[in-house]
Amino acid sequence: MISKKTKYAIKALLHLAKNYGEGPTLIGHLSETEKIPKKFLEAILLDLKKQGILGSKMGAGGGYYLIKKPNEVMMSQILRSTDGPIALIPCVSLNFYERCDDCIDEASCGIRDVMIDVRKATLKILSATTLEDILKREHRLSAASKSHKTKKKNKSN
After folding, report:
1. Which residues have CB under 8 Å from 106's CB, separation 6+?
2. What is the pLDDT of residue 29?
3. By CB distance 3.0 to 4.6 Å, which of 48, 99, 147, 151 could disulfide with 54?
4. Cα 85 versus chain centre, distance
5. What mean pLDDT comes out for the span 47-57?
6. Nearest-CA neighbor of 119 among 101, 96, 143, 144?
7. How far is residue 69's CA from residue 51's CA, in Å, rounded to a whole number?
8. Which 8-state DSSP code applies to residue 71?
9. pLDDT for 80-95, tens place per residue?
C-alpha cells in the first residue's frame, strides 16, 4: 500500500502536469485545489525538488513547477522518492537491499522467489507509466463515466 505522502505527491504532481508550461503554482492553491494539508504538502514538494522532479521560484509569480515534461516523470521515480523501496520485502529490493534477519538461505527461499516476481511485475508497470499516462487515463475514464451516466439517465426516462 502506498503511503499518504506518496498519494499526495502524485496528486500534486498530476496537478502540476495538467498545468505544465503555464508557470509556477502556489502551494496554497495546490493545497486547496487538491485538498492536501499545506504543511505536509510543503515537505513533500521540498523532497520532490531535492529529487530533481520539481523546481521552484520565489517571489511574485512564484511557486512550484515540473522540471521535466509530464511524459518523462515515471511513477517508479515518484514512489522511490517518497516511499523508498518498491519491493515488498528488503531482500528483493534493487536499490535498498537488506538481507532478511530470519532468512536461512536466500537461494532456496520460496517467499523471496514470489516477491521477486511481484517486484518485477510492479516495476514493469510503474517504470512504463508516466504522469502523462495517468492524465490520459483520467480523461478516458471521465469520458466513459459521463457516457455511462448519460445512457443510464436515458434508460430511466
Report:
1. 91, 99, 100, 112
2. 93
3. 48
4. 13
5. 94
6. 96
7. 15
8. G
9. 999 988 999 999 998 8
Nearest residue to 74 (alpha-carbon basis) of 120, 129, 2, 137: 129
Reference 34, options 52, 2, 10; nearest CA is: 10
Residue 132 CB partners (closer than 8 Å, separation 6+) = 17, 69, 70, 71
Residue position matching grid coordinates 515518484? 78
Reading the block at residue 114, the C-alpha cell is 514470489
Cα separation, 123 vs 33, whole angstroms: 30
Beta-carbon contacts of residue 51 (< 8 Å; ≥ 6 apart): 77, 81
Alpha-carbon gap, residue 41 to 31, rounded angstroms? 7
Among the listed residues 40, 54, 51, 56, the one whose alpha carbon sits nearest the alpha carbon of residue 5: 40
Residue 157 — very low, low, confident or very high, per pLDDT cuts 50/70/90?
Answer: low
